[in-house]
Amino acid sequence: MKFLAAHFLSRFFNGLAGAIAIIRGIISLESAKNRIILILSSIILIASIIVHFLHRVLNVSLYWIDEHPIHHIQQSDLVLNIFLSIPILLLITTLFFYRKNNDHSIIPLLNTLTITFGSMSMIAGGEGMVEYHFSIFMVVAIVGYYEKVNLIIVMTLLFTIQHLLGFFFLSEYVFGQLEYPFSMLIIHALFLLGTSGAITWQTIQKSKLLADLDQKQQKQQILSGVIEKLSISSEKLINASVQLNENYDLNRLAINGMAANIREISSGADIQRQQTEGSSAAIQEINHGIHEITETAKELSEISIATADEANEGNVMIYKTVQQMQLINEKVSSSSEMVKKLNHRSEEIGDIVKIITDIASQTNLLALNAAIEAARAGEHGKGFAVVADEVRKLAEESVGSASKITSIIKSIQEDTVSSAKSMDQVINEAKTGLEVVKETGEIFGRIYESINGVANRIKQIALSSTDVSAATKQVSLSLNEMSYFAEMTSANTQNVVHSSEEQLASVEILSTLITSLNDITLELQELIRETEQLR
Q1: What pLDDT, on the 0 to 100 scale, is given for residue 113?
Q2: Domain with residues 287-483, CATH architecture
Q3: Which residue of 128, 139, 313, 381 has the lowest C-beta tally within 10 Å?
Q4: pTM of structure
Q5: Which residues pair with 65 in a beta bridge?
């Protein structure tokens, strides 16, 4: 069985390696086509640029034959630059994708567009001269190298659109004339469609021929595989028949020896019967002991389950305590924040009282200055002096009140600072208590897990003891049956001796069949050799 599995895996991986090699070959072929067409599209673009230079800069169309000028048309530089820019942009885009992945699926389409628009640019730059229209057939030949019908259709549609636009709107850029006969347009179209159609038909037929060839090769490979398998099978069959023939004498001797051994087994069966009777009594004693172990394990299981439940309840109480401690910690933290805010507010009040004190001092100075000025004024300033004196008294009272407020604020600040420190200590103590409670909870959790594990183990022991008890009962029954079968074996061995003698006669017949099988296999090998010669 292992040999067949290894053989199958070997054939599978060999086939997989062949498929990967074929795929790599296809990918490398596609990459090579992309590289060749990319070079040709670059050459066509360079030729287009040269044509634009010759006709737009050097005006070579004015003097083609013996310096006799021919008809020259007016073309827009903007339109010509558009015709020239399109293939340049397409080539740049193609190079970008080629550098990322030289067998990218979009590269054939970009190459086709570059070559097609390069030909259009060449025709437009060459003032629509008929000579440059031959570049269309060059494009058809280059695109046909890809052997893809969709690319040929795209190229044909683009040239068809170019000729239609040239006939109706851009005649001077396509045909080199302001007016072009419709009949000539039809001739152009027929030749273009005929050439493209021929290339398309050739591509389709070639694909069909290649597909037929692949099918024939696959059938040939299948036939070769069948013949190879037949050859291998025939060789194995010959080897097997030779081996069987060699083993014939050994089997005959083995059967004779087996008959003698069976007689010895018959005598040993009586001894085995006596031993099984003694073993049955011992098994019954073991079964009684296992029953006591099972009862004890059940009691331990009940005790461990009760202990686990109590540990679980303790774990729940610890969890509730942790939650309460967390709540206390949060409340204490909130109170600490309130005390800190009170301290901050008292500091702000102190700043305000300081400002009031400064204002009162300034007011007192102003009152003194006003009293001095009133004294200088004499009778006219008496009323003003009284007011100034009252203002001064109010300022002094404000200073005194501010001093008292300052003292009170300082006392409040000292108390809040002391309270904040006490709150911090309470928070630290609460955190410490929370950590202790959490650790206690973890310890209870581990205790619960351990007790639960012990309970499960005790359950398993109880179940195992029950199973062992049942097994020992079964063993006891089996021993009784063995004693009975030992008696039956002693009687049946005599029948086996008789059967072995009959088997020996069958081996003689098998020897004759092996010889016939060997002759048939030789004829099969001869047929395989003749088939290989016909291939």
Answers
A1: 94
A2: Orthogonal Bundle (1.10)
A3: 313
A4: 0.38
A5: 68
